[in-house]
Each structure stands twice: as C-alpha cells, then as structure tokens.
C-alpha cells in the first residue's frame, strides 16, 4: 500500500493495541500515482487537473514528526485549486487531526502529511524572536515544518498596516500582545483601542503609549492621529522627505480591535470609519499604520478594500481560527485576497469516528486546544503556524509581558513637539469625555465635529476648597504627622498642606521635624524618636520610587503636566495620569483641568520640605 494511505494510532480498546487505517481501500501494490489520478487529480477531485512533480519522505527530526511531501502542479497559465476537505478524505485523515498541510502558490501546491500533528506545542516568546532581523521581519510563531514563522514589520508598499482575525479563544489577544512587543522593540509607539474593556488588553496597555476602549476613546484616538498627520507633514517639509527610519519622529501603529463593532456604533461609527479610511490611505507618508482586528472584518464603510489590500500586501496578516465555514476572504474583508486557508478546528484530534459511534465506543478525551494555530498571510502566500506563547492570565496571576517588551521598561511615545501640538488643539487628554458638538453652547443638535474642524472641549473646573485652619488646630493636640492630620480633617490634601505651612509661619503650630506638627506649646523632645509612617497603598503600576521621581519633577519644575511626566519618565500616558492622581491625593498638585497642566500647590521655597514629608509618608526605602 502507498505509505501516505496508511496511518497508525494507539487505541483504548486494549493494552498495546494499535489501530491501522488504510484509506482509501486499494488493491495491493497500487502506486501513489494511481491514488493521485483516481481520487485527487480527476475532474471534481481534491486538486483537479494536477500531476505529481516530486515525492519526498522525511524521518522524524527532534520534535518534528516524520512526514511525506508531494509537490504537485497544474499546467502553466492555470491556477491550482485545492479542496482541503476532499484531500483529507483521499488520504484518510480527519481535519481535526491537523496532520495534513497544504501550501498553494501559483500553479503549484505542496502537500505535507505528518505522522502526528506538528504544532502540538507552542513555543515561548522571547525578545530575541520578536526583534527585527536584517530583512525587517520578526518571528510571530512556529511554522508547521519547525521553522520560524516570520512577518514583515512594514508592507511591500512601505505601510505599517496589517490585520488579525480570530474568534474568541483563538489566541487573538496573545497575538496582539506579541505584535505590540515587536513594535516596541523596534522603537514604534502604539495606540490600542477595542470595542469593550478587556483585562488582558489592559495588561498590554501598561506597556504601550495609549490604550483604552469604547467608541468615544476610539473617536478621540483617531481624531488625534488625523491631526498628527498635519503636524508630521510640517516636519516632513522641514527635513525634505516623507516618513523614513531617519525621520525626527517615531512610527505610530493604531490597533483597532473589534473593528466591526466600533464602526457599527450608532453615534460615532460613521466618523470612526471615515477617519480610519483617511489614515489607512494617507498614513504611510507620516509613519502611521492601522492594524485591523476582530472575529471578522467588514470594510464596506471604508473607501475600498481593494486599495487597502494593495497597501497591506507584504505586511502582516494573521488568520487564526475563524467562525464556522466563513471563507478567509470574507472573514478578513478581502484583505487576505483569494488565499485558500484550510480550517482550524476548535480542538486538536477531538474526533470520534462514525464506526466508534455505531459501536458505542465511548471516549472522554476532549482533544487539545488549538489556541494560536492559524496562518500568516503575505500577499497571496499563506503558511500554517502556531503563534508564540506569552502568559496572559485570567486568574489574577502575574503576566509574562515584562519578558517580551523592552528590558528597560521604557515606553515609546510621540516627540515633545507632537504632544505640544496636540495639546494646543485640545486633543491630548484622557480621551474619555464625549466629543464636542461643534455648537458654541455645546447644546443639543448637531453631531460630533467632522474631520476638518475641531472644537476643543470646554474645561471642567472644580471649585477650590476653603481654608481649614480652625479644623486643623482643633485636631492637632499632640505631635502628629501630616498623614495623621489629613486622615482626621475632611478637606483636600493640598489645602491641608498649605494650611499647615501657614499655621507654622503664624506661630500657631510647632514643626519639630519635617512632616511632624504639634501645638505651639507642646514639648517636642520625643519627636525624633517617632519613626516614619507605614507604607501607603499606591495605585496599580505606581511604586514609591516612581512616585518620588514624579514628585521631584513636578515640584522642581513647577509644571504638573501629564505629557511631561510621560516623556521624562518614559511611561505610558495612563500611568503618568495615575502618578499625578497620586500626587493630587497627597496635596502636591491640583485636580485635572482638561488637557491643561495641573496647578502645583507646593509653596515656593518649600520644595525640600515637601519632598522629605512625602518620603516619610511613603515609608519606603528610596534612593536619592
């Protein structure tokens, strides 16, 4: 019998038994050529009109199982067509076994049949694998033949566009994390948005410049990106060329996850589609790329999927498990072209034959997950692979993202000039407030402004608190730290700090040491024996050392700017905001006021005292 028509597998019907399957049934001595002509190359067969060019058999190598390979071709000038289901049937292989792999290109197809599924094990991601090689590619997974599955950072036309399609549970979020890490290692800045909040993407968000969710956040993100093209256009004029690795600004990638849901939003969907179309068509000159992601993609609202497909050719395209029998062309909004991608089952080897069902043979083996299995798509070429693995927990345990993003922990951001320009336009803030209506009174009537016009959002000022000196004097009846005073006085921390300083100057309170206050007549001899306060709870991602660095910058420069902290500390925008919130709680800065820098509440000349007091409040060992 032809070797490729025979398969062996262990059974559960008895110890030491092996099930041998021969399919299709052949008379003894029939050659592989006969098998091919009878079931595969015939009209209506698996690969009609094809003929065998070469047959190779390879033994097992390391973790790669033994395999047989057939190179087949149709006549020159014709395009080869493969019916994957029929081909599996011809070789007696179940699709769920994932042992048969077909790669078609032009008039040729390479059919590989493995003894066992070659992609059972996912390889752990590393910085080395995600770092660009000499050809501008990074490794996103392992191909079925054991080689690295590589994708280009930029498309053949020079864009950073790409697409990622996969249903829930297919490994889409892990793939997005890998892409963001590769971009970070290459020096790119990333903005990530999705239709709904996702805890795992929030974890990724701690390593990128901007990350959020919902149509409002997405509207602001795209609005800022469109405005950024004008800013970068001026910079291009000054240096005399469009974006290149030598440009004075970093490339920027925009990840739009669950794109269909975002463009389907009743209020903002049309404008999200409109701005995305502008960025997809014109972003190349300004180093801005768009990565579309979702369970499937519908690009009907954009200017034309054909022009997008032309720009994505040669770039990154990943198709993981997709819904049911939806073709790759439909699932990717035509971005995958006419590439024929074999289906990826929900479970690996989760198959019970009809004979087993007839005989009532029970099995409790559910099969192994195919998470991360899919295809990389480049132009008309597709390679079956399994993405690299990085731990993104769903149980609250630590993730593995620190192992793949830059070791320095620094986050790539826009340049100072760009952020200042977006701030002046009212576009650099939390991106959570409703978009302006364009009306002078911002009242009813009229939707969000169009791309060509922008109205900065009205500032939402918070009233300042009144003095609380009398309350402080009533509380301070012994030696107390500033933290203890704040805990007993119902007032803003900054107000309390300023009132304490005024009361010391007025002689109504005594300050035996930094951060400690007592009644003016109190005996302060024991003040030095009092140790620092216990460590305080800090927001997630904020440690005491980082907070002290932020405090030092804000107090010494007297500039409570979120974008300044973002640039100076090389942290994400969200973390910079969390640092300012923590400083607000401790009375160093005032509340947020739109995109404006926060008011610094520390009296001039009190810098050293305030920083010493904060260091005592944190109760942590900090390096000067």
Task: Describe the 3D structure.
By secondary structure, the chain is of the alpha+beta class. The chain contains 19 helices and 21 strands. The strands form 5 sheets. Strands 8-7-18-17-14-9-13-12-10-11 form a 10-stranded mixed sheet, with helices on both faces. α6 (215-239) packs parallel to α8 (269-282) and α17 crosses α18 (573-585). The longest helix has 25 residues, at 215-239. The chain is elongated.
Q: Secondary structure elements and their pairing?
A:
Elements (H helix, E strand, L loop, with lengths): L5 E5 L7 E5 L9 H9 L10 E8 L8 E7 L10 H7 L9 E6 L2 E7 L12 H4 L6 E7 L4 E5 L9 E4 L6 H14 L3 E6 L4 H7 L4 E4 L1 H25 L12 E5 L2 H5 L5 H14 L5 E7 L10 H8 L3 E4 L8 H4 L15 E2 L5 H6 L8 E2 L3 E6 L2 E7 L28 H9 L44 H7 L4 E2 H7 L4 H13 L3 E5 L2 E4 L24 H14 L4 H8 L3 H13 L21 H12 L6
Parallel strand pairs: 9-13, 9-14, 10-11, 10-12, 12-13
Antiparallel strand pairs: 1-2, 3-4, 4-6, 5-6, 7-8, 7-18, 14-17, 15-16, 17-18, 19-21, 20-21
Uncertain segments are 441-466, 523-535
> What is the radius of gyration computed over CA atoms, rounded to a whole number of angstroms?
31 Å
Helix content: 25-40%
Tally of strands = 21
Q: Determine the structural class based on helices, strands and strand pairing.
A: alpha+beta
Which structural traits does this protein have?
19 helices, 30% helix, 624 residues, single chain, alpha+beta, four-stranded antiparallel sheet
Please provide a brief summary of the model.
The protein is built from 19 helices and 21 strands. It is an alpha+beta fold. The strands form five sheets. The chain has a ten-stranded mixed β-sheet with strand order 8-7-18-17-14-9-13-12-10-11, sandwiched between helices.
